[in-house]
């Protein structure tokens, strides 16, 4: 039976590729998509998610709009990375799907309460929606089979500051709430993307040659390519959300992970820094942190998702 996924996302370019992978992988099915403001403002994220789902043949997936800003901070988008529309300015059709009535946080709470243990929760953006749900239902995460977080870094190297990954930086208070909440969690940090999910020009050409979905995946990441090469020193654009999604669908690709007590810094100087407390006596484990994966499994899954 396919794994049922509930996906919380701030849909921009790499999130869209992750949605594409989830929608087209026969091992998974998407139960719901909830949108949070992050890489782009909320309305743009909703539009991008619906466009992607329609292109992937998943127009029946319900989409809810959620929180338009972090819990206590102003929204700081990543439109400088993904383009003003989050999709590198790629011409895309207007979506025909309707957005579901009601707030995403309430939809998440309903799904968790009414269908406990049936879904895997995958978060691809700032954790505002999830933290809001936890403040209402502290046991919220325990009602999912597992939660996979695209969040932070396991090696201390950031992409929005020297030490912070964007999702943790955008709403660190929300991230701290989620990490401390009960429930089985796995963190897939930006370091995993940087090491195992870089799409260099040769791989970009391979994706484009696979058809219209490969062309879509490559086109919407054009602006990310510029940022990744010029700002983070990579050989091409990297795909943090797609590799997190691939791990959620196939945890067997994990080579090494550590069970740690994680924290997120909320002060201004180190905002969004994810770090493990390794002091003795040991603090209680709250998160499994992925530190290495089989990158070939990810590339194979990506290519399969965009092959028509």
- Please provide the count of β strands: 12
* Assembly form of the protein: single chain
As laid out across the biggest beta sheet, the strand order is 3-2-1-4-5-6-12-9
Shape: globular
Strand content: 15-25%
GO molecular function, one term: hydrolase activity
Domain Inosine/uridine-preferring nucleoside hydrolase: 5-299
Protein name: Nucleoside hydrolase
Pfam family, one: IU_nuc_hydro
Account of the 3D structure:
The chain has 308 residues and is α/β, with parallel strands linked by helices. Helix content is 39%, strand content 18%. The chain is built from 13 helices and 12 strands. It has helices spanning 13-24, 42-55, 79-82, 104-114, 128-136, 166-170, 172-180, 190-196, 201-209, 212-219, 222-230, 240-249, 295-306, and strands spanning 3-9, 28-35, 63-65, 120-123, 146-150, 185-188, 198-199, 237-238, 254-260, 262-264, 274-276, 287-293. The strands form 3 sheets. It has an 8-stranded mixed beta sheet, with helices on both faces. The chain has a two-stranded antiparallel ribbon with strand order 7-8. Helix 1 runs parallel beside helix 2 (42-55), helix 8 (190-196) packs across helix 12 (240-249) and helix 9 packs antiparallel against helix 10. The longest helix is centred in the first third of the chain and has 14 residues, at 42-55. The chain is globular. 54% of the residues are buried. GO terms for molecular function: hydrolase activity. This is Nucleoside hydrolase.
């Amino acid at each position: 039976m396919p794994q049922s996924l509930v996906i919380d996302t701030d849909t921009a370019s790499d999130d869209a590729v992750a949605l594409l992978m989830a929608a087209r992988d026969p091992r998974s099915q998407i139960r719901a998509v909830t949108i949070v403001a992050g890489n782009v403002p909320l309305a743009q994220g909703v539009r991008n998610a619906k466009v992607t789902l329609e292109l992937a043949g998943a127009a029946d997936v319900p989409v809810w709009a959620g929180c338009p800003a972090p819990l206590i901070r102003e929204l700081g988008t990543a439109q400088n990375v993904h383009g003003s529309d989050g999709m590198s300015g790629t011409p895309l059709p207007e979506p025909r799907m309707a957005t579901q009535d009601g707030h995403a946080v309430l939809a998440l709470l309903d799904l968790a309460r009414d269908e406990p243990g049936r879904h895997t929760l995958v978060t691809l953006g700032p954790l505002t929606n999830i933290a809001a749900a936890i403040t209402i239902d502290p046991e919220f995460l325990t009602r999912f089979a597992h939660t996979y977080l695209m969040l932070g870094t396991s090696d201390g190297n950031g992409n929005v500051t020297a030490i912070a990954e964007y999702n943790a930086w955008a709403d660190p208070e929300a991230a701290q709430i989620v990490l401390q909440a009960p429930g089985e969690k796995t963190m897939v940090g930006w370091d995993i993307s940087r090491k195992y999910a870089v799409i260099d020009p040769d791989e970009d050409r391979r994706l484009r040659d696979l058809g219209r979905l490969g062309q879509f995946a490559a086109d919407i990441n054009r602006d990310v390519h510029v940022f990744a090469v010029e700002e983070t020193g990579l050989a091409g654009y990297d795909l943090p959300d797609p590799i997190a999604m691939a791990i959620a669908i196939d945890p067997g690709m994990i080579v090494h992970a550590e069970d740690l007590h994680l924290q997120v810094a909320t002060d201004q100087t180190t905002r969004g820094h994810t770090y493990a407390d390794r002091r003795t006596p040991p603090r209680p484990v709250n998160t499994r942190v992925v530190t290495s994966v089989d990158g070939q499994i990810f590339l194979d899954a990506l290519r399969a998702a965009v092959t028509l």
